[in-house]
Amino acid sequence: MAYAFYIKEIGRGKEGARDLSPDEAYHLFAALLDGGVPELELGAILMTLRMKCEATSEILGFQRAVDERTQRLRFESAVRPVVIPTYNGARHAPNLLPLVALLLTRLGIPVLIHGVLHGEGRVATVYVLRELGIMPSVSLAQAEAQLETGGLAFLPTQALVPGLASLLALRSRLGVRNASHTLVKLVNPFCGDSVRMLSASHPHYLGILRDYMVSTGGRGLLLRATEGEAFANPKRRPRIDYFTDGRAETLFEEEGPVALLPNLPRGIDAATSAAWIRRALAGEVPVPLPILHQLSCCLFASGYSGDMHQAKAVVAVATRGLSAA
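^ that's the sequence the OP posted. Answer follows.
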């Protein structure tokens, strides 16, 4: 493959760079995932894509290559499982993603979390889960078994898309993220339908994710990330959109800061976060209302509830005594 051609096309600077077509992007990313690109060209491709900013046409082609190399779980459920990617980790506020997952399983919604095993100086979701007694699966078979018995599993990226895990690991060497950090959020690990929980912090990438879901007709929920993770900001509810069959529907509009700040953990370390999550699950501290709204969206998207009114009612009844409102 003539890597210089791709670098020349995407690396001409802000004004001269050209977006790759979906087919060009597919062939390029297939080579990246298969590990056949020399290190010099690999670094140049990833950095020029980052500087240019990936286009929707490129994400469509890249994700096609990822989908072909994704290992699939076989799991049957009365409702669609929720898939939550976790690739950032908390830096300034508590990581409450495990709370969302555990509340969903309490409501009968299976949840698969996939992500990295190291936080790179941040409080990774896997650290909080370990404090809660939930260990990563070592294989797809183990993840399937954990979903069957407990409704919740954490699967490392290496077991799901090995080539993508290798590209993600380059963050520590390059010092910045690359296209793989967007693509991994779009992975559907199941043979059947699922609900992907998508999030991003930067408006450009929120737009990319939105365009991708509409273009492909996939099913998922999209919200602005908190600490880079896919849970609703407990202090300020984000807009939450639902995608299916090429249509987008806003289930909750963005709201300003809540009038009464929630009683959150005083520290952000894994042990403190896990202890607070245990208290929230026991009803000793209230669950922030934005997170309950996110749960309602998941119930609707998973097929548990026929409409949002029913989903809100189910969450209200099931979490009575846990809510901040």
